[in-house]
Write a structure and sequence with these properties.
The chain starts with a helix and ends with a helix. It has a 15-stranded mixed sheet that branches. It has 239 residues and is mainly beta.
Length: 239
């Protein structure tokens, strides 16, 4: 656990090139290329993801700031926004969702949640002793979660809670940090949404919370709309 906590604190920020492939209700969307920037602060997480389509046209620009979440979609000529303390239809606070999203980029940080403990792994008998992963159970906002790490390197293998499942692959060496996954596959069960992420040119420790990338001011030049206007049609869309 101490090694996990050390790793969680070592990775305080990163930026990388990103490729996104979304599959919604078994329909795969065109690949999007872009940029990922993320950092931890004492107050929480800051993150920005930009996505570009053909000819470098911006498809979306998403910012997690200190007090709000912004999603700019140029084709809608609008920025969708919600406060960090606002709640989704299922009662979950946006801040909780952001914390869970931060696990995707720093899965070792699950050791900072509640009721953390080493747990038996599923299908553990299929592994030789030296191959057995380290499996951790935890809880967050009353919900259970499970994470799996390579026993030798502490590189993440998977992360799961009742709402999402994350698989990690193709770890790369990043200085003093544990090998970091360059491929991340996310399945959001309620939305029937799968996201495949490929990271390139990963640079840890390269950002601070004061970086201009995390300044929300440019978003205010666009019309603002509630984020729920965008989420509800996706949630209730049928095949």
């Amino acid at each position: 656990m101490d090694a996990m906590s050390l790793q969680a604190n070592q990775l305080s920020s990163l930026k990388a090139g990103i490729k996104l492939k979304l599959t919604i209700h078994d329909q795969t969307q065109p690949e999007i290329k872009g940029r990922l920037m993320w950092t931890r602060t004492h107050e929480g997480e800051l993150a920005r993801v930009t996505g570009h389509g053909p000819f470098g046209i911006t498809v979306f620009d998403c910012l997690v700031a200190k007090k709000a979440f912004y999603l700019f979609i140029p084709s809608h000529n609008a920025v969708y926004v919600t406060g960090i303390n606002d709640k989704l239809r299922n009662g979950k606070e946006i801040s909780t969702l952001i914390n869970e999203a931060s696990w995707l980029l720093n899965p070792w940080s699950v050791v900072e949640t509640q009721n953390v403990g080493v747990a038996p792994c599923k299908k553990e008998k299929d592994f030789k002793d030296y191959e057995k992963p380290v499996c951790i159970s935890f809880s967050h906002q009353g919900g259970p979660g499970w994470a799996k790490f390579d026993r030798q390197t502490l590189s993440p293998i998977s992360l799961e809670n009742p709402e999402l499942k994350v698989l990690y692959d193709d770890p790369v060496l990043l200085g003093d940090c544990a090998p970091y996954p360059s491929k991340i596959q996310i399945k959001l069960k309620e939305l029937d949404l799968e996201i495949k992420i490929t990271l390139k040119d990963i640079q840890p420790g390269s950002l601070t919370p004061k970086d201009p990338a995390f300044n929300p001011t440019p978003y205010f030049s666009q019309p603002l709309r509630p984020l729920m206007l965008l989420l509800d049609p996706l949630r209730y869309q049928t095949h």
